[in-house]
TrEMBL record:
The UniProt record lists the keyword Signal: yes
Protein name: Cupredoxin
Gene3D superfamilies assigned to the protein according to its UniProt record, in alphabetical order: Cupredoxins - blue copper proteins
UniProt signal peptide: 1-18
Domain of life according to the entry: Eukaryota
The entry's keywords: Signal
Natural source organism: Dissoconium aciculare CBS 342.82
């Protein structure tokens, strides 16, 4: 028997690992993935989950867009053109301008992924709102439309099986083992990072613990990509989830203004699109991370390769700034959050990134878990739900009350209009939406609602962004 030198074994391992079959091959067509949108519950569901029969279907893609952190061209806090703003200059927002390539979740109307769902402009960089009630199942057909980076959707708080976790790490029973064990023996299969052009169907279920408490109608959650979390979220892959008490989604949407608010420092130096932005804004090179150095001769390629691609795509633009944003806007560039006098308002607030924030509104207080307040801390990854009654007429600020975050531009505006002058459709009016922007009152839905196959009834969706 011929003897194979150790160096040749290593070389063969390296060359084999460097060019594997594309991740998710065999699941690359949207049609194939769409066939899994079958309304069938996962094999295992948590104790206490009582299926309502409602399946909330969503069609969401990760795609690259050019994002403008200050689309009005003004520092609307100081009331000056942004190029003249000393605050914007001090924050580093002017060095390379305010237009940056970002990876964002965007909703579609159906599985053709042809037409975007309409999304309120104030929602900004956030992905489409996912809505469901306690007892429902959420089905998401997710397509990665990015050119070179991996992406997933990971729910913050809802229940899922291992397949629908939307996270990328080794699926083994012992650290250091290069073994993926069969489901029957230990760990269920994992849907790792979704490669460019590929798709997957996620199934999340809503257990009672996910829903609101204290008699409130709704509760904030979120979702984000979890291939390499720092790089993924700084690129922009974050979105809101609203969970309603059983049977209360339609009535809540009809009778409350609902505002998704995201506190986020976008650090463009650690976005996985840093190379793209460096090439565009700084004359730098756009390194193709898909050809990144093989870092292991062994290991689980489907785990380390997606992480390595996204990780090495970052850190290519070391002088890139951090933008202190609310919904992806700086210095009150977000469209104003409008509401009418005496409206009931729910603020679904999430914080991401590497800093803690403080939610505070001028002109109004709020209740949080039934207790009145005026300022509330938000740690990274935390979602909180605030209830407001709009009574103080005028335009007011909603801010981060951490001094340096505030000074760097983490400021937005809301306005309470007098009766008879409010540009929004009244709450509770038939067929009207609950948006806070005059052009968003009757947006079409990006979700459909169906009954599980073992039910005979079917229902059409009535959901709004």
């Amino acid at each position: 028997m011929a003897f194979t030198p150790a160096w040749l074994v290593l070389l063969l391992a390296l060359s084999t690992s460097a060019n594997p079959v594309q991740q998710n091959s065999g699941r690359d067509t949207v049609q194939t993935c769409a066939s899994s949108m079958d309304g069938v519950l996962p094999q295992y569901t948590p104790p206490g989950f009582k299926f309502s029969g409602n399946v909330r279907k969503y069609y969401i893609a990760a795609e690259e867009v050019e994002w403008d952190y200050a689309p009005t061209g003004w520092d609307n806090w100081m009331g000056v053109p942004i190029e003249n703003s000393p605050r914007a200059k001090a924050a580093g927002a002017l060095t390379y301008g305010t237009k940056w390539s970002k990876a964002l979740y965007r909703g579609y109307t159906d599985d053709t992924f042809t037409n975007h769902t309409e999304q309120p402009p104030y929602q900004g960089t956030q992905g489409p709102t996912i809505r469901a009630e306690v007892g429902d199942m959420i089905e998401i057909l997710f397509v990665n439309k990015l050119a070179q980076n991996y992406a997933t959707m990971h729910s913050m708080g809802l229940a899922y099986t291992k397949y629908s976790e939307g996270a990328t790490y080794p699926n083994n029973t012992m650290p250091g083992q290069n073994v993926v064990v069969p489901q029957a023996e230990a760990v269920p299969p994992v849907m790792a990072g979704v490669s460019p052009g590929a798709c997957v169907v996620y199934k999340w279920v809503v257990v009672p613990e996910n829903g609101p408490s204290n008699g409130e109608p709704a509760k904030a959650h979120s979702y984000h990509s979890y291939v390499s979390m720092q790089e993924d979220t700084n690129a922009g892959l974050i979105g809101p989830t609203f969970i309603y008490a059983k049977g209360q989604m339609d009535s809540t949407m009809a009778n409350y203004r609902e505002i998704p608010l995201l506190y986020m420092f976008y650090d463009e130096s650690v976005s996985f699109l840093s190379g793209v932005n460096s090439a565009k804004l700084n004359g730098g090179n756009n390194t193709n991370a898909l050809n990144s150095t093989v870092i292991y001769s062994g290991g689980n390629f489907t785990s380390w390769h997606p992480q390595n691609v996204n990780f090495e795509s970052a850190q290519q633009f070391s002088s890139a700034p951090r933008f202190a944003t609310m919904n992806g806007y700086i210095f009150s560039n977000s469209p104003v959050f409008n509401m009418c006098y005496e409206d009931k308002v729910i603020w679904y607030v999430n914080a991401y990134g590497s800093a803690s924030h403080v939610f505070h509104m001028h002109g109004s207080g709020y209740t949080y878990q039934g207790v009145s307040g005026f300022a509330e801390s938000l740690n990274d990854g935390v979602a909180k739900t605030f209830h407001q009654t709009a009574t103080a007429l005028g335009k007011w600020q909603v801010i981060c009350h951490v001094n340096n975050h505030h000074s760097a531009g983490m400021v937005a505006d809301y306005q309470i209009w007098p009766k008879g002058q409010c540009p929004l459709a009244p709450l509770g009016s038939s067929g009207k939406g609950n948006g806070t922007h005059p052009t968003s009152a009757s947006k079409s839905s990006h979700a459909t609602t169906s009954r599980a196959p073992h039910y005979t009834a079917s229902t059409g969706a009535r959901s709004r962004l």
